[in-house]
Amino acid sequence: MELLTAKQVASLLNVSKSLVYxxxxxxxxxxxxxxxxxxxxxxxxxxxxxxxxxGNKESNGGARRGPPRLRSFKHLDGxxxxxxxxxxxxxxxxxxxxxxxxxxxxxxxxxxxxx
Length: 115
Description:
- With 115 residues, the chain is an alpha+beta fold.
- It has a domain at 3-52.
- It has 4 helices and 3 strands.
- The protein has a 3-stranded antiparallel beta sheet.
- α1 (6-13) crosses α2.
- The protein is elongated, with a radius of gyration of 28 Å.
């Protein structure tokens, strides 16, 4: 059993070290913690991952294991968000219920005063 560092795995896969850590965090690439902070990978696991990425004509470039990455907010609480906006003085009326308050300036072009 050969243990590899993230740098060695990155070199083996010809990718960045940050991608190796992302694959680890997504649960796609198994890892082992040695001591408090050292992260190590087993060569066999890395080779198995690489084999799972092998594409063919029907695939879109490789198998993806693990959960999909979410690119949105996860824990929004509407009531807390509304209360926070109100504390900041934001008008939280539902759309269409009332229009925006008038401003003191106008966007219309000014006309010269006639005497």
